Amino acid sequence: MEVLETRKKNKRRWRYASASSGRMAFGLLLPTFILVGFIVIYPLIAAVRLSFLNYKLTEPGEIHFIFVRNYLNMITDRIFWIAIKNTLLFTFCTVSIGFLLGLFMALVIKELQTKYRSLRALFLIPWVIAGVVIGYLFMYMLDVEIGILNYILKKMGIIESFLPWLMRADLAMAAIIVTHVWNQAPFFMIMLTAGLMAIPEEAREAAYLEGANRFQEFRFITIAYLTNVILISTLLMIIRNFNYFPIIYTMTGGGPGYATTTMVLHIFTTAFEKFNMGSASAIGTTWLFILICLSMLYTRMMKESF
Amino acid sequence: MKKNMLLGVLVIFLVSLSLYAGGTQEPGVTTIRLLNWFSAEDSTRGPVLDVIAHFENENPQIKVDVIDVDFSEHLNQAIIMNNAGDPPDVAAYEGPGAVTLALMGSLASTDDLFSSEFQNDLFKNSYDLTLVKGKHYAIPWAPGPIGFFYQRDIMKRVGLDPKNPPNTIYDFTNAAAKARKQLPEDYVIFQYDTTARVFTFDFTYPFMRAFGAMPIVGDKVDFTSPEIKTYCEWVRSSLENKYFLPGKKMGQFRPLAAQDRLVFGFDGSYLRGIVQSINDKITTEQFNNTWGVAPIPGDKNGKHYSYGGDTGLVVFNSSTHKAAAAKLIQYLVNSDYSLRNFSIFQGWQPATKSALERMPEFNKDPIMVAFIQTVTETVTPLPYRSDYGDIVLPFVKGVQEIITTKRTIDSVLSDVQRQVDAAIKQ
């Protein structure tokens, strides 16, 4: 009886303590919620509201409600579709090439002797440099007149005359992709290195004992164990690259013409060069909707993985 | 208890620190904020800060807080700061900037801020470029018409006559072809801005006019005319023949002039100052002997056009220090110290008639004299309007497509026109 009473008392105490710590947690988190609400939720709602207005900064007296006209103009604007195409192309290429390069680097480092594994830190350097700095670096390296790449290629006899890497529609996107792959491959390297370390040696040994060759071991053991890491890292980078701005803006500003104009650059140009906040908000709201769908997919895959 | 007390003391300390760091102002001193690109650029930073420091010495009750901004971003930054409720007191502008800001209702009219004596002293054709609905909204600081610079030594070398620089755009194109044939690839034939900026449209407008193109006339906007097509064909063929470097800003050609690798330049009277800041071995006499100045090659009838390129200063409506702001502007524009140590030093034209009379140095510089006597009169007003950016940006992007893809010019111009029509309708 006494034991039962004690148990009941302990349960009451535990419930009280849980409720009390829950209230305390809520109280401590409330300022953060308010701040996040202020700097994230409020601008979001304001942007959606702006998307239904005719709002140009250069015509402050002409602000009025125009319902969905901004969205209709967006759909009929060829630049919108060019931007979507460029964003998909940029994202697909940078993620796939970045992943392959990162996988290669992770596998190479794994095979290195332990004393050389600190070289991993050197491979991280492109990842830690700010995008704007990388953009300027490559912009000067690819310059038509003073760029070192043109100089090397001409010396090697690969090109006859200097190429305008950033001022030819067919070359500019390739230049942006190469630059961004250089920047983000280390991320894949780090993620995949962690994944490779988690593969049990016994699984590999068992595969070899069963008669598997190197390629079969890689395909059926290594890749199988890395599936979750690959899914999570590629999805993260897809979302990141859909929104990517610094390198593209620094190197080409979305040009030449619209050859490297992605959705984010299109929104930026509409808002801050044409000062058309209503249109920019409509494009931004649409893009937000697409990214929310992607994020929901990512969250679902995370839940399934874990 | 002790912990709570310590926490309280820490919070009070941090709040006090932030209040102190927020800025202390000496009593009786007015601080005005000046947004400009001169303090951000190597060639002009030293001189402009020197003039401002001198102004502060002569006016100890006024302090100037200088805000640097990149030239390409100055209008964006001014508009964003104004819309965010935190505009500067004074801002430098170039070209359509003043009109754009005035149409937004952001600026104070200069008619009310400056004496009629000072306003009458300003060159009328420059001052009137800042008129919006009958009122002036900016003070010109450096009228900066774009002129045609020709490198005499290189012209002689390739068999061109430096005493007879090209007069029409057709003569110019022939001269460029002759120079290209004889010069190695590392020489650039002429300076031409093909970046995607509103400024690029302004800079290239005289060339459109030379082909008879007037894409914006009042409310009518037409980028599909035969004259515009001819202009676009000329730009495309000029690049195909390697007369200029694609995608470069106007200023990015100036180092080539400093290295004697540029045959023809399209720039302001301040080119000498900038070239000397890049290559300090070039003396003023050497520059004046090497480079001649003429109006930009004109149309088939020999009529010349130029872009004003005026740089000036504006006062924002919301400034609570308009009198101090006006004092700073007047000092920068018309004081002897500023004229001598900034305008003349940089090779700028003066904005006031009295400056020409007070400063004989303006009349000793042959480049300056050529600009004043032959180039300034060719300045053509640009068709500014509130949706100017909406209209001209698609066109400059279209020109980039024309020079970087194989698309037909007709299809590019049709797309441009569609975009512009949609922007005007909105």
Give me the oligomer status.
Answer: heterodimer
The share of residues in helices of chain A is: over 70%
Class per helix and strand makeup of chain B: alpha/beta
N to C succession of SSEs of chain A? HEEHHHHHHHHHHHH
β-strand percent of chain B reads: 5-15%
Distance, first to last CA of chain A? 43 Å
Total helix count of chain B?
Answer: 19
What report would you give on this structure?
- The complex is a heterodimer of chains A (306) and B (426).
- Chain A is 75% helix and 1% strand.
- With 306 residues, chain A is an all-alpha fold.
- Chain A has 2 domains: 2-50; 79-305, MetI-like (MetI-like fold, Orthogonal Bundle), CATH 1.10.3720.
- The radius of gyration of chain A is 26 Å and the shape is flat.
- Chain B has 426 residues and is an alpha/beta fold.
- Helix content of chain B is 48%, strand content 13%.
- In chain B, β1 (30-36), α2 (42-58) and β2 (62-68) form a beta-alpha-beta unit.
- Residues 20-24 of chain B have low confidence and may be disordered.
- The interface between A and B is large, with 37 and 35 residues.
